[in-house]
Amino acid sequence: MARLSTLLTSVLALSGTSLASAVFDLLPSNFDDIVLTSGKPALVEFFAPWCGHCKTLAPIYEELATSYESSKSKVSIAKVDADEHKELGRRFGVQGFPTLKWFDGKSDKPEDYKGGRDLESLTAFVQEKTGIKPKGAKKTQSHVEMLNDQTFKTQVGSDKDVLVAFTAPWCGHCKSLAPTWETLAADFAAEPTVLIAKIDAEAENAKATAKDQGVTSYPTIKYFPKGSKEAIPYTGGRSEDDLISFMNEKAGTHRVSGGGLDAMAGTIAALDSIVAKFTGGEAIATVGKEASAAAQGLKDRYAEYYVKVFGKVEQNQGYVEKELNRISGLLKKGGLAPEKIDDLTSRSNILRKFKAVAQGKEEL
Protein backbone atom coordinates (compact mmCIF):
# COMPACT_ATOMS: atom_id res chain seq x y z
CA MET A 1 0.00 0.00 0.00
CA ALA A 2 2.87 2.38 0.88
CA ARG A 3 4.46 1.63 -2.49
CA LEU A 4 1.17 2.37 -4.28
CA SER A 5 0.82 5.67 -2.40
CA THR A 6 4.36 6.68 -3.36
CA LEU A 7 3.71 5.76 -6.99
CA LEU A 8 0.45 7.76 -7.00
CA THR A 9 2.20 10.80 -5.52
CA SER A 10 4.91 10.58 -8.19
CA VAL A 11 2.34 10.36 -10.98
CA LEU A 12 0.46 13.37 -9.63
CA ALA A 13 3.66 15.37 -9.30
CA LEU A 14 4.57 14.63 -12.92
CA SER A 15 1.13 15.74 -14.07
CA GLY A 16 1.40 18.99 -12.13
CA THR A 17 -1.33 18.11 -9.63
CA SER A 18 -1.01 18.14 -5.85
CA LEU A 19 -2.91 15.84 -3.53
CA ALA A 20 -3.69 18.75 -1.26
CA SER A 21 -4.16 21.55 -3.77
CA ALA A 22 -6.62 22.50 -6.50
CA VAL A 23 -4.01 24.86 -7.97
CA PHE A 24 -2.16 23.36 -10.93
CA ASP A 25 1.62 23.31 -10.45
CA LEU A 26 3.52 24.31 -13.57
CA LEU A 27 7.04 23.31 -14.56
CA PRO A 28 9.27 24.21 -17.53
CA SER A 29 8.45 20.79 -18.97
CA ASN A 30 4.68 21.28 -19.06
CA PHE A 31 4.23 25.07 -19.14
CA ASP A 32 3.93 25.51 -22.92
CA ASP A 33 1.61 22.54 -23.43
CA ILE A 34 -0.77 23.57 -20.64
CA VAL A 35 -0.65 27.35 -20.81
CA LEU A 36 0.31 28.41 -24.34
CA THR A 37 -0.98 25.83 -26.82
CA SER A 38 -3.82 23.99 -25.09
CA GLY A 39 -6.49 26.39 -26.31
CA LYS A 40 -7.63 26.63 -22.68
CA PRO A 41 -7.17 29.94 -20.83
CA ALA A 42 -5.20 30.05 -17.61
CA LEU A 43 -4.56 32.38 -14.72
CA VAL A 44 -0.96 31.86 -13.64
CA GLU A 45 0.69 33.04 -10.44
CA PHE A 46 4.45 33.48 -10.55
CA PHE A 47 5.56 33.15 -6.93
CA ALA A 48 8.53 32.56 -4.65
CA PRO A 49 8.35 30.32 -1.55
CA TRP A 50 9.99 32.96 0.65
CA CYS A 51 7.67 35.80 -0.45
CA GLY A 52 5.38 37.09 2.33
CA HIS A 53 2.78 38.48 -0.07
CA CYS A 54 2.72 35.11 -1.85
CA LYS A 55 2.02 33.34 1.44
CA THR A 56 -0.84 35.75 2.11
CA LEU A 57 -2.28 35.11 -1.34
CA ALA A 58 -1.91 31.31 -1.13
CA PRO A 59 -5.15 30.40 0.73
CA ILE A 60 -7.15 32.87 -1.37
CA TYR A 61 -5.71 31.48 -4.60
CA GLU A 62 -6.43 27.96 -3.38
CA GLU A 63 -10.06 28.88 -2.73
CA LEU A 64 -10.28 30.39 -6.21
CA ALA A 65 -8.93 27.21 -7.76
CA THR A 66 -11.31 25.06 -5.72
CA SER A 67 -14.30 27.09 -6.91
CA TYR A 68 -13.26 26.47 -10.53
CA GLU A 69 -12.16 22.85 -10.11
CA SER A 70 -15.36 21.54 -11.69
CA SER A 71 -14.52 23.66 -14.77
CA LYS A 72 -10.84 22.68 -15.02
CA SER A 73 -11.44 21.35 -18.53
CA LYS A 74 -12.31 24.93 -19.55
CA VAL A 75 -9.97 27.08 -17.45
CA SER A 76 -6.79 26.54 -15.43
CA ILE A 77 -5.87 28.19 -12.15
CA ALA A 78 -2.15 27.55 -11.91
CA LYS A 79 1.09 28.63 -10.32
CA VAL A 80 4.80 28.36 -10.99
CA ASP A 81 7.71 28.70 -8.59
CA ALA A 82 9.54 31.44 -10.49
CA ASP A 83 12.34 31.50 -7.94
CA GLU A 84 13.25 27.90 -8.69
CA HIS A 85 12.38 28.17 -12.38
CA LYS A 86 13.85 31.58 -13.05
CA GLU A 87 13.84 31.08 -16.81
CA LEU A 88 10.03 31.12 -16.84
CA GLY A 89 9.97 34.31 -14.83
CA ARG A 90 12.45 36.03 -17.16
CA ARG A 91 10.60 34.78 -20.21
CA PHE A 92 7.43 36.62 -19.17
CA GLY A 93 9.04 39.70 -17.65
CA VAL A 94 8.34 38.85 -14.02
CA GLN A 95 10.11 41.35 -11.77
CA GLY A 96 8.36 40.86 -8.43
CA PHE A 97 6.27 38.38 -6.49
CA PRO A 98 3.52 37.48 -6.68
CA THR A 99 2.86 38.35 -10.32
CA LEU A 100 -0.41 37.18 -11.88
CA LYS A 101 -0.84 36.85 -15.64
CA TRP A 102 -3.76 35.77 -17.81
CA PHE A 103 -3.02 33.53 -20.79
CA ASP A 104 -5.61 32.89 -23.50
CA GLY A 105 -4.27 29.40 -24.28
CA LYS A 106 -3.32 30.33 -27.83
CA SER A 107 -0.36 32.70 -27.60
CA ASP A 108 2.68 33.54 -25.51
CA LYS A 109 1.59 37.14 -24.89
CA PRO A 110 -0.25 37.23 -21.56
CA GLU A 111 -2.27 40.03 -20.01
CA ASP A 112 -1.09 41.33 -16.64
CA TYR A 113 -3.65 40.99 -13.85
CA LYS A 114 -3.90 44.37 -12.14
CA GLY A 115 -6.88 43.85 -9.85
CA GLY A 116 -7.11 43.22 -6.12
CA ARG A 117 -5.78 40.05 -4.53
CA ASP A 118 -8.99 39.30 -2.66
CA LEU A 119 -11.21 36.37 -3.66
CA GLU A 120 -14.02 38.59 -4.94
CA SER A 121 -11.76 40.52 -7.33
CA LEU A 122 -10.01 37.39 -8.63
CA THR A 123 -13.29 35.55 -9.11
CA ALA A 124 -14.85 38.49 -10.94
CA PHE A 125 -11.83 38.66 -13.25
CA VAL A 126 -11.92 34.96 -14.19
CA GLN A 127 -15.69 35.04 -14.62
CA GLU A 128 -15.47 38.10 -16.85
CA LYS A 129 -12.81 36.47 -19.00
CA THR A 130 -14.48 33.07 -19.33
CA GLY A 131 -18.16 33.54 -18.59
CA ILE A 132 -17.85 30.60 -16.21
CA LYS A 133 -19.43 30.94 -12.78
CA PRO A 134 -17.52 29.48 -9.82
CA LYS A 135 -19.00 26.65 -7.80
CA GLY A 136 -18.74 25.81 -4.16
CA ALA A 137 -20.29 26.76 -0.89
CA LYS A 138 -22.78 29.54 -1.46
CA LYS A 139 -21.67 32.70 0.29
CA THR A 140 -23.63 35.65 1.49
CA GLN A 141 -23.67 38.36 -1.14
CA SER A 142 -21.17 41.08 -0.39
CA HIS A 143 -22.51 44.64 -0.36
CA VAL A 144 -19.01 46.12 -0.17
CA GLU A 145 -18.07 47.72 -3.49
CA MET A 146 -14.46 47.22 -4.54
CA LEU A 147 -13.24 50.45 -6.13
CA ASN A 148 -10.29 51.04 -8.43
CA ASP A 149 -8.74 54.12 -10.02
CA GLN A 150 -11.53 54.38 -12.56
CA THR A 151 -14.60 53.61 -10.43
CA PHE A 152 -13.35 55.78 -7.57
CA LYS A 153 -13.60 58.83 -9.83
CA THR A 154 -17.20 58.05 -10.77
CA GLN A 155 -18.52 57.06 -7.33
CA VAL A 156 -16.83 59.70 -5.17
CA GLY A 157 -18.33 63.15 -5.70
CA SER A 158 -21.60 61.69 -6.98
CA ASP A 159 -24.99 61.72 -5.23
CA LYS A 160 -23.76 59.18 -2.66
CA ASP A 161 -22.15 59.45 0.76
CA VAL A 162 -19.13 57.16 0.43
CA LEU A 163 -17.12 55.51 3.19
CA VAL A 164 -13.92 53.91 1.89
CA ALA A 165 -11.48 51.57 3.61
CA PHE A 166 -8.02 51.52 2.03
CA THR A 167 -6.55 48.08 2.76
CA ALA A 168 -3.66 45.77 1.87
CA PRO A 169 -3.85 41.97 1.46
CA TRP A 170 -1.12 41.31 4.03
CA CYS A 171 -2.45 43.70 6.69
CA GLY A 172 -3.59 41.97 9.89
CA HIS A 173 -5.74 44.89 11.07
CA CYS A 174 -7.43 44.94 7.65
CA LYS A 175 -8.32 41.26 8.03
CA SER A 176 -9.77 42.01 11.47
CA LEU A 177 -11.83 44.87 10.01
CA ALA A 178 -13.10 42.85 7.01
CA PRO A 179 -16.09 41.04 8.64
CA THR A 180 -17.22 44.27 10.35
CA TRP A 181 -16.95 46.11 7.04
CA GLU A 182 -19.10 43.46 5.34
CA THR A 183 -21.70 43.75 8.10
CA LEU A 184 -21.67 47.54 7.86
CA ALA A 185 -22.25 47.38 4.10
CA ALA A 186 -25.16 45.00 4.65
CA ASP A 187 -26.63 47.39 7.26
CA PHE A 188 -26.70 50.19 4.67
CA ALA A 189 -27.56 48.04 1.63
CA ALA A 190 -31.08 49.48 1.48
CA GLU A 191 -29.80 53.08 1.45
CA PRO A 192 -29.52 54.09 -2.23
CA THR A 193 -27.40 57.16 -1.44
CA VAL A 194 -24.86 55.44 0.85
CA LEU A 195 -21.91 53.42 -0.42
CA ILE A 196 -19.61 51.32 1.77
CA ALA A 197 -16.52 50.63 -0.31
CA LYS A 198 -13.02 49.22 -0.18
CA ILE A 199 -9.82 49.77 -2.14
CA ASP A 200 -6.93 47.33 -2.34
CA ALA A 201 -4.24 49.99 -2.11
CA GLU A 202 -1.59 47.63 -3.49
CA ALA A 203 -3.54 46.55 -6.57
CA GLU A 204 -2.08 47.88 -9.81
CA ASN A 205 -5.43 49.35 -10.80
CA ALA A 206 -5.87 51.21 -7.49
CA LYS A 207 -2.37 52.26 -6.40
CA ALA A 208 -2.69 55.71 -7.97
CA THR A 209 -5.83 56.50 -5.97
CA ALA A 210 -4.24 55.39 -2.70
CA LYS A 211 -1.24 57.60 -3.45
CA ASP A 212 -3.41 60.59 -4.36
CA GLN A 213 -5.27 60.18 -1.06
CA GLY A 214 -2.02 60.14 0.90
CA VAL A 215 -2.58 56.65 2.27
CA THR A 216 0.54 55.45 4.09
CA SER A 217 -0.85 52.91 6.56
CA TYR A 218 -3.61 50.32 6.65
CA PRO A 219 -6.46 50.29 7.12
CA THR A 220 -7.12 53.95 6.40
CA ILE A 221 -10.79 54.95 6.40
CA LYS A 222 -12.06 58.08 4.68
CA TYR A 223 -15.53 59.57 4.27
CA PHE A 224 -16.57 61.50 1.17
CA PRO A 225 -19.82 63.51 1.45
CA LYS A 226 -22.17 63.39 -1.51
CA GLY A 227 -21.18 65.88 -4.17
CA SER A 228 -17.66 66.28 -2.78
CA LYS A 229 -14.26 64.79 -3.57
CA GLU A 230 -12.74 66.20 -0.37
CA ALA A 231 -12.12 63.43 2.13
CA ILE A 232 -12.91 63.55 5.85
CA PRO A 233 -10.59 61.15 7.72
CA TYR A 234 -12.41 58.70 9.97
CA THR A 235 -10.72 58.49 13.36
CA GLY A 236 -13.41 56.81 15.45
CA GLY A 237 -13.76 53.28 16.72
CA ARG A 238 -13.96 50.33 14.36
CA SER A 239 -16.91 48.52 15.88
CA GLU A 240 -20.11 48.12 13.89
CA ASP A 241 -22.00 50.49 16.19
CA ASP A 242 -19.27 53.13 15.97
CA LEU A 243 -19.30 53.06 12.18
CA ILE A 244 -23.11 53.04 11.96
CA SER A 245 -23.34 56.07 14.25
CA PHE A 246 -20.78 57.92 12.14
CA MET A 247 -22.61 57.26 8.88
CA ASN A 248 -26.02 58.10 10.35
CA GLU A 249 -24.67 61.43 11.55
CA LYS A 250 -22.96 62.28 8.26
CA ALA A 251 -25.53 60.92 5.80
CA GLY A 252 -28.68 61.74 7.77
CA THR A 253 -29.74 58.09 7.88
CA HIS A 254 -31.29 56.10 10.73
CA ARG A 255 -29.81 52.62 10.45
CA VAL A 256 -29.22 50.24 13.34
CA SER A 257 -27.21 47.05 13.64
CA GLY A 258 -28.85 44.39 11.50
CA GLY A 259 -29.93 46.85 8.83
CA GLY A 260 -33.20 47.99 10.38
CA LEU A 261 -34.32 51.53 11.17
CA ASP A 262 -34.34 53.34 14.50
CA ALA A 263 -37.40 54.95 16.14
CA MET A 264 -36.73 58.32 14.48
CA ALA A 265 -36.77 57.09 10.87
CA GLY A 266 -39.51 58.76 8.85
CA THR A 267 -40.39 61.31 11.52
CA ILE A 268 -40.09 65.03 10.82
CA ALA A 269 -39.35 67.35 13.76
CA ALA A 270 -41.25 70.32 12.27
CA LEU A 271 -44.41 68.23 11.92
CA ASP A 272 -43.94 66.46 15.25
CA SER A 273 -44.17 69.86 16.95
CA ILE A 274 -47.50 70.43 15.19
CA VAL A 275 -48.74 66.99 16.24
CA ALA A 276 -47.86 67.90 19.82
CA LYS A 277 -50.26 70.88 19.66
CA PHE A 278 -53.10 68.42 19.61
CA THR A 279 -52.45 67.81 23.33
CA GLY A 280 -52.99 71.49 24.00
CA GLY A 281 -56.65 71.19 23.20
CA GLU A 282 -56.62 72.56 19.67
CA ALA A 283 -59.16 70.91 17.39
CA ILE A 284 -57.78 68.16 15.19
CA ALA A 285 -59.10 69.92 12.08
CA THR A 286 -57.26 73.14 12.95
CA VAL A 287 -54.00 71.33 13.66
CA GLY A 288 -54.44 69.24 10.52
CA LYS A 289 -54.71 72.36 8.35
CA GLU A 290 -51.54 73.74 9.92
CA ALA A 291 -49.76 70.45 9.20
CA SER A 292 -50.98 70.50 5.60
CA ALA A 293 -49.62 74.01 5.05
CA ALA A 294 -46.28 73.10 6.65
CA ALA A 295 -45.97 69.90 4.60
CA GLN A 296 -46.16 71.82 1.34
CA GLY A 297 -42.81 73.45 2.05
CA LEU A 298 -41.08 70.17 2.88
CA LYS A 299 -39.39 67.83 0.42
CA ASP A 300 -39.47 64.85 2.78
CA ARG A 301 -41.45 61.93 1.31
CA TYR A 302 -43.29 61.32 4.62
CA ALA A 303 -44.62 64.88 5.01
CA GLU A 304 -47.80 63.95 3.15
CA TYR A 305 -48.22 60.88 5.35
CA TYR A 306 -48.54 63.15 8.40
CA VAL A 307 -51.30 65.04 6.58
CA LYS A 308 -53.02 61.76 5.68
CA VAL A 309 -52.97 60.60 9.32
CA PHE A 310 -54.43 63.91 10.51
CA GLY A 311 -57.30 63.43 8.06
CA LYS A 312 -57.90 59.83 9.12
CA VAL A 313 -57.84 60.71 12.83
CA GLU A 314 -60.36 63.50 12.23
CA GLN A 315 -62.73 60.90 10.78
CA ASN A 316 -61.93 58.08 13.21
CA GLN A 317 -60.27 58.55 16.62
CA GLY A 318 -59.29 54.87 16.67
CA TYR A 319 -57.44 54.98 13.34
CA VAL A 320 -53.90 55.21 14.75
CA GLU A 321 -54.19 52.14 16.97
CA LYS A 322 -55.90 50.12 14.25
CA GLU A 323 -53.30 51.06 11.62
CA LEU A 324 -50.40 50.31 13.97
CA ASN A 325 -51.81 46.83 14.57
CA ARG A 326 -52.23 46.27 10.83
CA ILE A 327 -48.65 47.29 10.04
CA SER A 328 -47.31 45.24 12.95
CA GLY A 329 -49.08 42.19 11.55
CA LEU A 330 -47.54 42.71 8.12
CA LEU A 331 -44.04 43.06 9.57
CA LYS A 332 -44.44 39.93 11.71
CA LYS A 333 -45.73 37.93 8.76
CA GLY A 334 -42.47 38.53 6.88
CA GLY A 335 -41.70 37.96 3.21
CA LEU A 336 -41.48 41.68 2.49
CA ALA A 337 -38.87 43.43 0.38
CA PRO A 338 -36.34 45.52 2.36
CA GLU A 339 -37.74 48.73 0.88
CA LYS A 340 -41.24 47.80 2.04
CA ILE A 341 -40.00 46.97 5.54
CA ASP A 342 -38.32 50.38 5.73
CA ASP A 343 -41.50 52.10 4.57
CA LEU A 344 -43.73 50.32 7.08
CA THR A 345 -41.24 50.96 9.89
CA SER A 346 -41.14 54.67 9.07
CA ARG A 347 -44.94 54.85 8.98
CA SER A 348 -45.10 53.07 12.34
CA ASN A 349 -42.71 55.62 13.85
CA ILE A 350 -44.95 58.47 12.67
CA LEU A 351 -48.09 56.76 13.96
CA ARG A 352 -46.45 56.34 17.37
CA LYS A 353 -45.99 60.10 17.52
CA PHE A 354 -49.77 60.44 17.18
CA LYS A 355 -50.35 57.63 19.67
CA ALA A 356 -48.12 59.32 22.24
CA VAL A 357 -50.14 62.52 21.83
CA ALA A 358 -53.43 60.63 22.25
CA GLN A 359 -52.14 58.95 25.42
CA GLY A 360 -51.05 62.34 26.73
CA LYS A 361 -54.51 63.76 26.20
CA GLU A 362 -56.07 60.82 28.03
CA GLU A 363 -53.77 61.41 30.99
CA LEU A 364 -54.72 65.08 31.02
What does this protein look like?
- This protein is an alpha/beta fold and 364 residues long.
- Helices cover 46% and strands 12% of the residues.
- The chain has 14 helices and ten strands.
- The chain has helices spanning 2-15, 31-36, 52-67, 86-91, 119-130, 149-155, 172-187, 207-212, 240-251, 269-276, 284-295, 303-315, 319-333, 338-363; strands at 24-25, 42-47, 76-81, 99-103, 111-112, 145-146, 161-167, 194-200, 220-224, 232-233.
- It has a five-stranded mixed sheet with strand order 1-3-2-4-5. A five-stranded mixed sheet has the order 6-8-7-9-10, with helices on one face.
- The chain is elongated and about 90 Å long.
- Mean pLDDT is 89; it is low at 1-19.
In short:
With 364 residues, the chain is α/β, with parallel strands linked by helices. Helix content is 46%, strand content 12%. It is elongated.
Chain-wise SSE layout:
Elements: H1 2-15, E1 24-25, H2 31-36, E2 42-47, H3 52-67, E3 76-81, H4 86-91, E4 99-103, E5 111-112, H5 119-130, E6 145-146, H6 149-155, E7 161-167, H7 172-187, E8 194-200, H8 207-212, E9 220-224, E10 232-233, H9 240-251, H10 269-276, H11 284-295, H12 303-315, H13 319-333, H14 338-363
Parallel strand pairs: 1-3, 2-3, 6-8, 7-8
Antiparallel strand pairs: 2-4, 4-5, 7-9, 9-10
